[in-house]
Amino acid sequence: MRTMNVGASLLARRDFLRACALLGLGGAMAGLSRGAAGQAAAEPGFVVINGWVLPAAYFRTAKA
Asked: What is the rounded distance in angstroms from the CA atom of residue 59 to the CA atom of residue 53?
């Protein structure tokens, strides 16, 4: 079995943490760009009440 150098272990851990930080930053930037677009979400077509899935149109009032 090969023994690992302590310095190599620290470098591997540092590289792993750096990669995690970059992935998190990239995900945050992607989330911010989607949020900046400001598109309204489509109204869902169904409503769940006590485990029953019902059409949302049944609960909407008529628009004037």
From this structure: 12
Cβ distance 5 to 16 under 8 Å? Answer: no
Cα–Cα distance list, 6 to 10, 16, 56 (Å): 6, 15, 61
Answer yes or no: pTM beyond 0.85: no
Distance of CA 2 to the CA centre of its chain: 40
Q: What is the mean pLDDT of residues 28-45?
A: 65
Separation CA 64–CA 4 (nearest Å) = 74
* Residue 43 · residue 56 · CB < 8 Å: yes
